[in-house]
Amino acid sequence: LNVDWKELRSAAEKRLEAKEAILSMRGDDPRPILILRDCDGCANKEGDLLKFSLQDERVIIGTAWFNCIRLGHEVMEPNHPLSALFTGSIPPHVLVATWDAKRIIPIPRCTRKDLWRNMSVVLKKDYRKNPDKAVRGLLEILSSFDAIDDREEALRVQLETKERRGKKSRAEKLKKQLAELEEDRQELIEKEKKLRDLQFRKPPEKREKEV
């Protein structure tokens, strides 16, 4: 599990309003946006909390439905084109926004619970299917994949031993069990594909006309 971060530098020359800043970054990616502002050192509790939250499996799975953008600490400079996104007494390290930037949610304190809750709010605006239900299903599938991998490894060790000892009958049974495991894996892959497709509320081709 990894987050597909894009490092971005705005081409704008002047300071943009928050909505304009979001729209300037989205490009032709039809997904909602998740923005991470890197901290300058962040050797503090807030930085540790953010790092911990971004390692949460539920959060990592959810980022696949976002256009994930990582910004450097320079966005805090008052005249930076994107600085309007990071105002207030506690400038957020993370923001999430709908594709059209009509809903922008800064997340000043990024506990795992707060981060996922706000990610879910935005996902429900841009997608038809429930992200909470999908994530629960995907976590179960990940556990099932792990179980299959462990079982497969054990069977292959047994198969190697039986073949080395000339136990052909037992070896054939083990090969059959391995084939059945592969069928189970393929079924899980299909289930995973369905769960990952949350379905856009507004198809990308229609959105392009609004740009």
Radius of gyration: 23 Å
Mean pLDDT across the residues is 87
Count, helices: 7
In terms of DSSP E residues, the strand content is 5-15%
The helix-strand sequence is: EHEHHEEEHHHH
* Helical fraction: 40-55%
Multimeric state of these chains?
A: single chain
- SS-based class: alpha/beta
Task: List strands and helices in order, with pairings.
Layout: E1 6-7, H1 18-26, E2 33-37, H2 45-53, H3 57-63, E3 67-71, E4 94-97, E5 104-107, H4 112-126, H5 131-164, H6 168-196, H7 204-208
Question: What would your notes on this structure say?
Answer:
With 211 residues, the protein is α/β, with parallel strands linked by helices. It has 7 helices and 5 strands; from the N terminus they run E-H-E-H-H-E-E-E-H-H-H-H. Strands 1-3-2-4-5 form a 5-stranded mixed beta sheet, sandwiched between helices. The longest helix is centred in the C-terminal third of the chain and has 34 residues, at 131-164. It is elongated.
Brief write-up:
This protein is α/β, with parallel strands linked by helices and 211 residues long. It is 51% helix and 9% strand. The two termini are 32 Å apart.
Key terms:
211 residues; alpha/beta; five-stranded mixed beta sheet; 51% helix
